[in-house]
């Protein structure tokens, strides 16, 4: 009998890549959507059209702040594996809306762990931890034993979720794992994140739809990998012989400035002619440097990143060039209103 997976945050970047991977492996996948006035499933529309009629891919309305609905869905679907990917995941937004960000990041995982603990079925649980938990105070490589120094409400909520997952694992003998993933990007990354801001703006600049891009700290360093590689690591963690905590990273740190240089060179432009840095877009508490050590995952899971930094940037640029071309066509046909300036 094929395995059943339950994924919160299924409509996000990681939700798409993980669902795709599991469906290709023969899983039955159940994903949750938060009910709102507009339902955005554009990332997973291709999966819906391909797998829904095959009775392999199912969507349910739920919310991390509604423990009753989460418990009912888990009892109804009887999953073998639960992946908690949902959260208010934008760091800057967590400063502007700290209560909601912290509630979803703490109460959601706790509610799911309670449902898993109380189930009569042995369910495996994956918690999406974050490299933001480390704080990035220096340039050292960070691993599973490194100290957490959260610098945002988002990061603080992730530390709680990480620790409560360990507590439930040790207290109730649950197969509960923490995946401490460093920054991972793709063409499906949300447009509020800096990498996607850059590639979306680049496409618009290329087609004359935008003239400038305003960003915050260009000298922040991150360990950037490809989301498609990282969801493979999630699955490997859940299918390891014992539950543990795992860092996934590339072992390379690159600055926002370097991302800009490589991206703009793809269309033979100099980013300095188009990009403005403004302190208005700095975080209240900057995380300057994050670099991961994935040696444990490599040794025990056999996982390693498959996509290089330059390949990742190129992949995102090519996607958003095509997106901007379609956007221009819609504007020329008066099917879309132009937005000439994006300062984000």
What does this structure look like?
The structure is a single chain. It is globular and about 60 Å long. The longest helix is centred in the last third of the chain and has 24 residues, at 309-332. It has helices at residues 13-24, 45-51, 67-77, 91-96, 98-118, 153-172, 194-206, 227-238, 256-265, 295-300, 309-332; strands at 4-8, 28-33, 57-61, 81-84, 124-130, 176-181, 184-185, 213-215, 221-222, 225-226, 245-248, 254-255, 275-277. By secondary structure, it is α/β, with parallel strands linked by helices. The strands form four sheets. Strands 3-2-1-4-5-6-11 form a seven-stranded parallel β-sheet, sandwiched between helices. Helix 1 (13-24) packs across helix 8 (227-238) and helix 7 crosses helix 11. It is built from eleven helices and 13 strands. It is 41% helix and 15% strand. It starts with a strand and ends in a 12-residue tail after the last helix. The protein has a domain at 4-185 and 224-248: NAD(P)-binding Rossmann-like Domain (Rossmann fold, 3-Layer(aba) Sandwich), CATH 3.40.50.720.
As laid out across the biggest beta sheet, the strand order is: 3-2-1-4-5-6-11
Strand content: 5-15%
Name given to the CATH architecture of the domain at 4-185 and 224-248: 3-Layer(aba) Sandwich
As residue ranges, the low-confidence spans are: 340-344
